[in-house]
Amino acid sequence: MKNTIRIVASLVIGTWMFWVCPPCFNKMLWGSILALFFILINFQNFFARFRILVQAARVLVGLLFIFSGLVKENDTVGFSY
């Protein structure tokens, strides 16, 4: 029952966010992001089996932010933004 409520609630919120999104967003990209969030939220028990993939994704995202910061530091005008 608890999982059913979570699935229905996330579908309703996701659908609402899809239709309310501003016109400056691409609907296809926004729908893909919401679908990814739906999968990650409702199937978290399935993804918990792959702990090494979760850790690898965390490390890759961390390295991405570090690389982005280093690129911004190199460009003084861009860093001021």
Structural overview:
The protein is an all-alpha fold. It has two domains: 1-48, no CATH class; 50-81. It is 84% helix and 0% strand. It is flat and about 55 Å long.
How are the elements arranged and paired?
Elements (H helix, E strand, L loop, with lengths): L1 H19 L6 H16 L1 H4 L3 H24 L1 H5 L1
Helix pairs in contact: 1-2
* Global structural class: mainly alpha
Radius of gyration: 18 Å
**The number of domains:** 2
Instruction: Report the span from N to C terminus.
Output: 48 Å
* Average pLDDT: 79
Query: Helix amount, in percent?
Result: over 70%
Helix run count = 5
Strand segment count? 0
Residue share in β-strands = under 5%
Q: Spans with pLDDT under 50 lasting ≥5 residues?
A: none
Largest sheet: none
Question: What is this structure, in a nutshell?
Answer:
With 81 residues, this protein is an all-alpha fold. The chain is 84% helix and 0% strand. The protein contains five helices and no strands.
